[in-house]
Design a protein that fits this description.
The structure holds 2 protein chains of 2 kinds. Chain A is an all-beta fold. The N and C termini of chain A lie far apart (36 Å). Chain A is globular, with a radius of gyration of 13 Å. Chain A contains no helices and 11 strands. In chain A, strands 2, 4, 5, 6, 9, 10 and 11 form a 7-stranded mixed sheet that branches. Chain B is mainly β. In chain B, the strands form 2 sheets. In chain B, strands 2, 4, 5, 6, 9, 10 and 11 form a 7-stranded mixed sheet that branches. Chain B has a 4-stranded antiparallel sheet with strand order 1-3-8-7, with no helix packed on it. In chain B, β5 and β6 form a beta hairpin. Classes of the chains: A mainly beta, B mainly beta. At the A-B interface, β4, β5 and β10 of A face β5 and β10 of B.
């Protein structure tokens, strides 16, 4: 199985900060990488697919990059509604696997 | 707007069974693969199972293979998860999710339901 490792597991940031989250795959997955946002008590929301393509309706402050084994999610200017947990997911092969999550908290 | 609505969750005894339906609307259900993803209390996301648009191909996580069965009824726009021999560690919120492709190949999820809670306890 492909293991997905996210870092950091949590971070504290202020409104307006630029935030970067890293996701590393245990083997190459090309660009078959997605990112999700989840708020407490809510279902995950799809943000990015194919490593860097924004889902419809997702604001451009979110961006993704990477290929192979190393990927990043960047939030250009953190807003109050962005405080949440973020997950990466590989879809190169079954079983589909997720990273452990990164909780973004208010400083 | 594509929407998914899970139901059927609840409290079940260890070793028991439960079937979760997921009703789809707002898109051509029979054209897309579907999946189940779960989340144990306070934990991360875990993929459970996927099915192709036709239902002809199914895929499972090792943790549920042989105990859970994914199926779909395209005439009713409904996805199912039959869960047998339930264990305490199956306790989780179960989400159904739509795949952007119908082939059954590995994919990500573009639409999620709100989830249904399954609690397994002796």
């Amino acid at each position: 199985d492909i293991q997905m490792t996210q870092s950091p597991s949590s971070l504290s940031a202020s409104v307006g900060d630029r935030v970067t989250i890293t996701c590393r795959a245990s083997q190459g997955i090309s660009n078959y990488l997605a990112w999700f946002q989840q708020k407490p008590g809510k279902a995950p929301k799809s943000l990015i697919y194919a490593a860097s393509s924004l889902q419809s309706g997702v604001p451009s402050k979110f961006s993704g990059s990477g290929s192979g084994t190393d990927f990043t999610l960047t939030i250009s200017s953190l807003q109050p509604e962005d405080f949440a947990t973020y997950y990466c997911q590989q879809y190169n092969t079954y079983p589909l696997t997720f990273g452990g999550g990164t909780k973004v908290e208010i400083k | 707007e594509a929407q998914l609505l899970e139901s059927g969750g609840g409290l079940v005894q260890t070793g028991g069974s439960l079937r979760l339906p997921c009703a789809a609307s707002g898109f051509t259900f029979s054209s897309y693969g579907m999946s189940w993803v779960r989340q144990a209390p306070g934990k991360g996301l875990e993929w459970v199972s996927a099915i192709s648009a036709s239902g002809g191909s199914t895929y499972y996580a090792d943790s549920v293979r042989g105990r859970f069965t994914i199926s779909r009824d395209n005439s009713k726009d409904t996805l199912y998860l039959q869960m047998n021999s339930l264990r305490d560690e199956d306790t989780a919120v179960y989400y159904c999710a739509k795949l952007p492709d119908g082939s059954g190949r590995p994919e990500t999820f573009d639409v999620w339901g709100q989830g249904t809670m399954v609690t397994v306890s002796s």
